[in-house]
Every structure is written in C-alpha cells, then in structure tokens.
Amino acid sequence: MPISLLIDTDPGLDDAIAIALALGSPEVDVIGISTVGGNTNLANTTRNALRLLEFLNRTDIPVASGHDEPYARAKQETGNPPVHGTDGFASVDLPEPSTQVVSTDAPAFLAQKIREAKDPVTLVAIGPLTNIAHLVDRFPEVLPLVDRFIIMGGAAQTGNVTPVAEFNIWHDPEAAKVVFNSALKTVMVGLDVTHSVKTYETEWEWMNAFGKFGEVFVQMMTYYTDFYSQFYGERMTHQHDALAMAEAIWPGIMVLQETTIDVETKGELTDGMTVVDQRDRKGRGRNSWVAWEIDGNEFHARLGQALRRLAAPFES
Ligand code: BDR
Ligand code: CA
Known about the structure:
The protein is globular, with a radius of gyration of 18 Å. It has a single domain (about 5-315), classed as Inosine-uridine Nucleoside N-ribohydrolase, Chain A, CATH 3.90.245. It has ten helices and eleven strands. Strand 4, helix 4 and strand 5 form a beta-alpha-beta unit. The relative contact order is 0.16. Strands 3-2-1-4-5-6-11-9-10 form a nine-stranded mixed sheet, with helices on both faces. By secondary structure, it is an alpha/beta fold. The model has no long low-confidence stretch (mean pLDDT about 95). The structure holds beta-D-ribofuranose and calcium ion.
C-alpha cells in the first residue's frame, strides 16, 4: 500500500521538483497539497501549485491555500533578489489552472485529510511552518494520527539566510517554535543534509528529449542554477525540498538522530536559529529527529527514476 502523503509547500523552484518527485513515486499517494507564503506571496504559491498540477495532469489532487502572513510577526525581506523569480516559478510558461482551491483554510483542510485517511498519513512541510503551527493550535486532536512529520527547514550547524538561520524557519520562527514544541515529532531535514548534496546542471539534460516537460523544468533549474552559481561558482543547486521529500517517500534513506530541537525567536544575531541539543540538557525529552547524512548518488538515481516516469507522456 502506498503511503498517504500530504504536502505543505510554497512553490518555489525546488518545491516544484519535490512535488514532481512525489508524483512520480509509486511508493506514495499524494492526497492533498496546501500552500503557504514563503518563497513568494500566497497568491503566487497557490497559482504555482495549481499550474504545476494542471501541467502534470494531476488536477485530481485537491489544493487548499493557507496563510500568507507569518504566525506572529510581519513578513521580513531577505535582502536578496528573489531566488525563485518574481512569480516564484522563474516566469516559466505554464498553463493557467482550470481548477481552483477546494478551501482557503489550509489547517482545516489538512485536519480533515488527516482524519479521513484510512491509515496514518505522512505530512511533509517544505515551506515556512505557518500553516502547520495553526494546525497544531486549532486541531490538536489530529496530531496523533500523523504517522510521520518531515520538514525541510533549519540546520544544526549553519544557516543560509543568516549565518545561523535557514530560510523556512527564519521566515516564521514563532510558527516553527510552536511546531517543535507540539505533539508532532518532527524529522528535521535541514541544511546539514541539503548542503551536502550538489545537483549539477547536467542532472537535468535528459529532460530535453521530453518536449514541454523538458522546457519547463530545464528553464526552472537553469534559473535556480544561475542563482547558486553566483555564490558557489559552480553550475549546481541544492535540492532542499526534494531531499526532505525523499525521506518522506523512502523512510530511512538518510541517517537520522533522535534529539531535542527548539527555535530562537528573540536573539539579535540568532533569530530563527534551530537549536539542536543532542544531549537534551534540560531533560525535556527528545521531540525530534535531525537528519545528518544521505547518499547523494542514491538520491539522484531515485530522483531521476521518478522524474522519468512523469516525463514519459511528454516524449517528443
Ligand atoms: C528552503 O527555502 C526555500 O527557498 C526553498 O524552497 C527551501 O524550502 C531552503 O532554505
Ligand atoms: Ca520550499
């Protein structure tokens, strides 16, 4: 039986690859997608999720939009040009959606999907944790029904937006604090893993034989690679969200350690930092798992296989 999977996301170029990875993997059945503001505003992330599903012929998957504004503070700007382009999808030419969101209340939508699922679901969050924090506040009774909860976010060792904070947590630290302190046992796939895997541009070349599929994804990944190459001087990207998705699809594909994690929300220099206490110094109990390692070759092999399945109908 495939794993029933719910995806909370802010598409987002690497979110697009992560969603495609899930759709191309028979191990999971995507039973719903919810959107959140993050990489770009909620109107864009929602439009992008719907357009992507339209393009991939998966309008059967219900989409709900959620929160645009962070949980307890005003939106802040990173100070960088938008990593994902002004519309979040590098202005790629995708069909406008023929479908609409089934709800504008993502936490209620997620709660309903969790309740209705035959088996306990896996919930994967690859954007800021705003919707999930509201789910925790409003529907605590469904949390025990979640089998696994995986996030792309945070870092034990080093940040990306600031020296210590990763974007998804930095964007909404109070939400992340609520989530880490909830009954959900979080699997944190952070920069410790995602920065350890380099996806070179050559990884996408095969897509050029797949008509419009190649056009869309290669354009997205070229834009994303242009951004990375400014900082790293190499034609590669870090596929943050697809890596978190990999752990949702293939439990145990990465090395996990049970640990205690909390979030800094007040520090002058450390706002949005995930504090990983491997020794659980305050004896509060291990509330999370931190991901440390993945075999990059294995990840790329499985990603390629899943994307090829999705691309097949587009072969020219
Ligand atoms: C995370 O931030 C976003 O830019 C990406 O989509 C990913 O979820 C990486 O820090
Ligand atoms: Ca994301």
